[in-house]
Amino acid sequence: MIHKNKKTLIMGIINCTPDSFYSQSRKQGPGEALGQALSMVKEGADILDLGGESTRPGASYVSQDEELERIIPVVEAIRRETDIPLSIDTRKSGVARAALNAGANIINDISALRDDPQMTPLAVEKNCPVILMHMQGTPENMQNKPQYESVVDEVLHFLIQAAQKAEKAGVLKENIVLDPGIGFGKTLKDNLDLIRHIRRFSKEGYSVLMGLSRKSFIGQILDTDPENRLIGSLTANGWCAAEGVDILRVHDVLETSQMVRMLQEISWKD
């Protein structure tokens, strides 16, 4: 269960990949990843999200063997040093199972349990939290003219259906987290509409995660590259925190943690 209990949770991103869109998030090997993990723990991370396959627009599929080689030594190294909850960002049940057996705690599936028919039974077996994300298309083609009649209605409908299907299979409702998938098959307007109306997702009784850190829609608005999108990320994440989002998935843990702490102090009522 990862409901917030009056606190917005900070999920730090560690990409065990050579090609993720933000170069500073790429960590090669367990040594680099462990160093980043321990830094994020000190900076205020509540969860760490580990990924062995880039899902940036245009990214290619990575084999299970390669993904396992990238991610399992990292999970083992981090788990030897800290008990912080670890999320495994994967579409493959074989990778998820190995990571959970090595000490990970959460499945983060950008396909919302659609890509691998064994992912749902695994989540039931392990009784672990599962993050279900909306994506139109695949990482390879998702930004090729995405279209919606009503993006908020359609994304919310998809996620509720995915959650209900998971519940019917045996996943506990309190273990389900909804992620609207900012940047995954969406235009600039689509992303902004989802952020503006994010409170609608929280009304469904599930935890809600937003992953918008340094993404391209921020660059479109501010005309900046990923290395210069910190202020834009903090602003958008601040809006989401104020609107009740449970988990913020971010590259910049210290700055986001400080921002959330300030918001919580300002909004606290005696």
UniProtKB/TrEMBL annotation:
Entry's EC annotation: 2.5.1.15
Metabolic or biological pathway: Cofactor biosynthesis; tetrahydrofolate biosynthesis; 7,8-dihydrofolate from 2-amino-4-hydroxy-6-hydroxymethyl-7,8-dihydropteridine diphosphate and 4-aminobenzoate: step 1/2
Pfam short name (any one): Pterin_bind
Residues in Pterin-binding domain copies: 8-261
Keyword Metal-binding: yes
InterPro entries: DHP_synth-like (IPR045031), DHP_synth_dom (IPR006390), Dihydropteroate_synth-like_sf (IPR011005), Pterin-binding_dom (IPR000489)
Name of the featured protein: Dihydropteroate synthase
Species: Oceanispirochaeta crateris
UniProt lineage: Bacteria, Pseudomonadati, Spirochaetota, Spirochaetia, Spirochaetales
Gene label: folP
